[in-house]
Amino acid sequence: MLNAKKVIIESGIAFGTSGARGLVVDFKHNVSAAFAHAFVDVMRASFKFNSVAIGIDNRPSSYEIAQACAAAIQQQGFNVEYQGVIPTPALAFYSMENAIPCIMVTGSHIPFDRNGLKFYRPDGEITKDDEYAILNNTVRFSPINELITLHVKNNAAQAYITRYTSLYNNHTLKGKRIGIYEHSSAGRDLYAPLFRQLGAEIISLGRSDEFVPIDTEAVSDEDRLLAKVWSSQYQLDAIFSTDGDGDRPLVADETGTWLRGDILGLLAAQALDIDALAIPVSCNSAIELSGNFKKVAYTRIGSPYVIAAFEELKANYSAVAGFEANGGFLLASDINVNGKVLAALPTRDAVLPVLMLLAYAGNGKISHCVERLPQRFTWSDRLKDFPVEKSQQIISDAIAVPQNFLNELGLSELKCIDIDRTDGARFKLANGDIIHLRPSGNAPELRCYTEAANEALAKQYVQIVLNKLSAI
What we know:
Layout: E1 2-3, H1 4-11, E2 14-15, E3 20-23, H2 29-44, E4 51-56, H3 62-75, E5 79-85, H4 88-97, E6 102-105, E7 114-121, E8 124-125, H5 128-135, E9 140-141, H6 155-165, E10 177-181, H7 188-197, E11 201-205, H8 221-234, E12 238-242, E13 249-252, H9 261-271, E14 276-280, H10 286-289, E15 295-299, H11 303-308, H12 310-314, E16 320-323, E17 329-331, E18 335-337, E19 340-342, E20 345-349, H13 351-361, H14 366-371, E21 377-383, H15 388-400, H16 402-408, E22 416-420, E23 425-429, E24 434-439, E25 446-452, H17 455-470
Parallel strand pairs: 4-5, 4-6, 10-11, 10-12, 14-15, 14-16
Antiparallel strand pairs: 1-9, 2-3, 3-7, 6-7, 7-8, 12-13, 16-17, 17-20, 18-19, 21-25, 22-23, 23-24, 24-25
Helix pairs in contact: 1-2, 2-3, 2-5, 4-6, 6-7, 9-13, 15-16
């Protein structure tokens, strides 16, 4: 018999900002099973259920990991509802609607040589306390010697489509030409039917048989150029895409310019008449400057922290939501949309914000909606394969003497007036600009986020910082 805690510790796989992540080679069958056993054991202590749902993304390794998790679930005496390749929010919505736990096998946007597991309680995302309980669970289990064949059900995917198509009639998006950048997204077979049911004309773009690691916070130069070309070639009103597991949106306006995720979130929150927001500290300050919200609460980066802030906000405000800089939108309250009740879905979702943006823009242009916002611009990028310990030391030194840090960057003319340590170090400069450093919670990477009065300067800050730090 194997001990779940021991197997997990020895694997080296750990929880980050969004689920447990690690190298594919470390997700051996018994490691995947250990996580599933520990999760189910933690869930059964607080909830009653007969089944556990499982979904996967399009990574080559995901199905086998799902098989090992399914074998563990069956060892615990529960049924497995395998939903196949599906967006994370679709699986989560199905889980919450049916009051059962679920496991999503996905590494989201990280490279395909890595993968991960996201866990959902019957009432939503697991908490940091749940993560601790999983990592320290000592349930014993038999080794996985044989993987089981999984048969796909598609009821979760259909429920997700209906969640949104039921809000509007089939003429709502009539006249709109929307490009769907499909690449290898887990939701690529859902989005075209969904938007077609609302009246849009759909053009499928960039479908790939190989996994494409789209990071909605650091869009590649190639994808920026592609969007411009596609927008001109097909005369599009918008381009919609997501990251690998479909919980982070990527939206371009009619010019093929990708919107930053937090700007998309801001526009969606305005369209939904949200009263109070919980957002990570890395988000654009245009959100608060817009003056549209009664309360804006700032959190550490990662959906568990955003969700943790919801309870206090819901005690004081009727319409509560959150979003992250990557664009993932979390709806904390049941709200009224077009005379219909839209149930809360407190996990990152990619479809809700783009649907609200399109409805908000109406017959107008998306770019005009963006132009009406306070003009603050953000940029971000990261150093890959950068040891966490090295990141932490750089940040510690910068906090200790921020002016030396700016001097070393060649930015001696700038002055730091405040440091927000909510997550990493966010340096606010006297001119209102921002430089923010933090180690990634999902991979050995150092992330840099900046904000300035124009996009060129924000991008320049990132290039200066990362070029300097990469040489250390």
